Amino acid sequence: MKSMHFTQEEKELAVTWAEDSSWAEQENYNADLVYMDCVKDILEHPIFQSMENYMQHGDTTCKHHCIKVSYMSYSICRRLGWDYKEVARAGLLHDLFLYDWHTHARETGEHFHGFTHPRTALNNAVKYFELTENEKDMILRHMWPLTPIPPRTRGGLVIVYSDKFCGLIETVARFKRWFLFSVGWKSTA
């Protein structure tokens, strides 16, 4: 197993990559044939494609957020010599809740999206895809520690990390662009 520690350069590259939604929009992950072999059926499914209609964090759609979480989790697990196929698949489906969480409570009266959406995502995922027990667990437990039971597998913990990392960076990137725009600074972000 390779070292679990990342160099400063690798950390900076990860932040830059997570800030940039164009990577997912341009479908650059298609060039990784091993990754595509794991997830092609999900990526091509109309239900997964419909996630493009919902915003997730900042300016990132739910679809692009899930692709980033999936690919980051897959890359970490593959680098460490861990099982990466289930992680890649569960990462794509972890937020398959199929509604706009920004307006969901107002429209339905159902509050606490952060606590409830993993179950909704899992229920939707099993409707449309064949999943292993580990994949189901990864989807259901991806909001830990907000939800009390942690994932059973190392891959599940990697998804927890990747989801929090990508969500934070996506949100901060939007505020960074807003701030730079509001003060009149030019930015390439």
Key descriptive features of the protein:
189 residues, 62% helix, globular, mainly alpha
Please give a quick description of this structure:
The chain has 189 residues and is mainly α. It has helices spanning 8-19, 22-25, 33-44, 46-49, 62-80, 85-93, 104-108, 113-128, 133-140, 154-182.
Structure, explained:
- With 189 residues, the chain is mainly alpha-helical.
- Helix content is 62%, strand content 0%.
- It has helices at 8-19, 22-25, 33-44, 46-49, 62-80, 85-93, 104-108, 113-128, 133-140, 154-182.
- α5 packs across α10 (154-182) and α6 (85-93) crosses α9.
- The protein is globular.
Q: Count the E strands.
A: 0
Overall residue-averaged pLDDT value? 83
Gap between N and C termini, in Å?
36 Å
Q: Please mark out the parts with pLDDT under 50 across 5 or more consecutive residues, or reply none.
A: none
Oligomerization state: single chain
What is the H/E order?
HHHHHHHHHH
**What class, by secondary structure content?**
mainly alpha
Main beta-sheet strand count, sense and barrel state: none
Please count the helical segments.
10
The helicity comes to: 55-70%
Which outline best applies? globular
- Rg is 16 Å
How big a fraction of the residues is strand?
A: under 5%
